Amino acid sequence: MSQAASLPVVRPAAVGRDRALLIGGVLAGPIFAASAIVQASTRDGFDFRRHPVSVLSTGELGWIQIVTFLVSGVLCVLGAAALRRRTGEGDGSVWLPRLLAVYGLGLVGAAIFSADPADGFPAGTPPGAGEISWHGGLHFLVAAVAFVSLIAATVLAAWRAARQGAPGRAVYSLVTGVFFAVAWVTLMVRPAPAVMVAFGLAVSAGWLWVSVTFARAASGRAD
Length: 223
Prior knowledge:
By secondary structure, the protein is mainly alpha-helical. The protein has helices at residues 16-42, 62-86, 95-112, 134-163, 167-189, 193-218, and strands spanning 9-10, 221-222. 67% of the residues lie in helices and 2% in strands. The chain has a two-stranded antiparallel sheet with strand order 1-2. It is globular and about 55 Å long.
């Protein structure tokens, strides 16, 4: 006889400090997305088909995106700390908050090490990729660490959801991670306007998954 699937873990809804931190984690993605959209709509020369959000951290108004990276990253790290206190010890429970914390730390690193101007942005920058400075190189490095951590978190969540008998949640997590990974790798191998837009959508999908994960924990559903 096959062993029955584990039921999803249900805990009391988070209260007090942990609830506030988890709600902060939920809001990290919307804050990031709203800031990027407003900046892209108001800063001359920025085009989602040509530029990653990171280049918004350049120029006179670059401080806005730097603060956005910092706030979103810190909210994610604090949310991950609260998530760790809401989960158990087995079945990969410890690693999901750890991976989300590393993702948040990667965003903080992206704030500290800003990207370089590129491909006509800010206005007046020559076309093309341009030279990569030391801080621009570190920006790419910490961003890569953040992306890998997020992808790993979605795969881990998918595996845990499958073990808990929640196939819908497992598919959602896995599809999010695969979409993000494919879009990212494609952007590095064959950059093109359509690929840049697809990557932007993948980042949005990743943030949505992060918000859903923290929201579930705040309501007492442990992933």
